[in-house]
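INTERNAL TRANSFER SHEET
From: sequence group
To: structure group
Subject: MBL fold metallo-hydrolase

Please process the attached sequence and return the structure record in the designated field. Keep the field labels unchanged so the import script can parse them.
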Amino acid sequence: MRLADLHLPDAGLRPPGDLAGAPIPLLPDVAWLRTGIVNVVFLGLPEAGDGGWVLVDAGIPGFATHIAHAAARRYGDTRPAAIVLTHGHFDHVGSLRALADRWDVPIYAHPLELPYVTGRAAYPPPDPTVGGGAMARLSPLYPPGPFDFADRVRPLPTDGTVPGAPGWRVQATPGHSPGHVSLVRDADRTVVVGDAFVTTQQESATAVLTQRVELHGPPMYYTCDWDAARESVRDLAALDPSLAITGHGQPMRGDALREQLRAVARDFDHVARPAHGRYARRPAITNESGVVELPPPVPDATSIGIAASAVMVGMLAGSVRRSR
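Return from structure group:
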């Protein structure tokens, strides 16, 4: 499946307020941009020049023009060295094809993520029974893939370096997806963590719309291996990060980040892992070819919940239209 098959127009949608233009700088060479419900990250100084910066993730469908215009405001008429994926879920690769083709650049992903972004396999199905919010209930409606960027995707280097981003390294943080990675800069303990953990309650549409800042584990409805997710959060907490940019929610830094991350890492099985659900006790088994074995679905995902989710889709779409 190609995300272009969704037939969503690339209209350069612009969120309201301070998110309506340039990426928001966090450090001289790190900036972030919210695209609907998910963030993208820019690594590289504004004066880096052609091939001197990197885009991390590519947002939801329909935001390619918005992301490209934001990049131009930060970097001028230049191209990135690459687009690096923390993982390939639909909300992180929605505008990927348009951007990679526009800039004519390679895409990099972890080898265990390649089946899902080269057209070979669909992701483990989501679990709408976990998390208790409309975004979780919506999850059966999200595109599962396989997504096909095979002509541009390359495996991340085996030495852990990040193409086009000197000083950064790749740290495997699986659990939310089989080949999920985070990007780490040890010099200042800055981390770009994708969905290894997030800073909003992503299962809740209200929290997504208000962007209330609070640290949570990975989005429940798409996490397919909770043991691995727990170890990934603990590994990131052990880095004692000074700044974290997440795939969902606002960046966090300083003592608030470290204290909340340590608490989630310590109590992960009680505060982040669902008590019940398809993957709560048995993970999806995957390998370099894709999904090998799945636990059975939980039978109480009701049509009422899906109908309520469809209403929520309409509300979100109306909000996006009003922001244009």
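Handover comment: Confidence is low (pLDDT under 50) at residues 1-20, 313-324. The CA atoms of residues 130 and 219 lie 9 Å apart.
Transfer complete.
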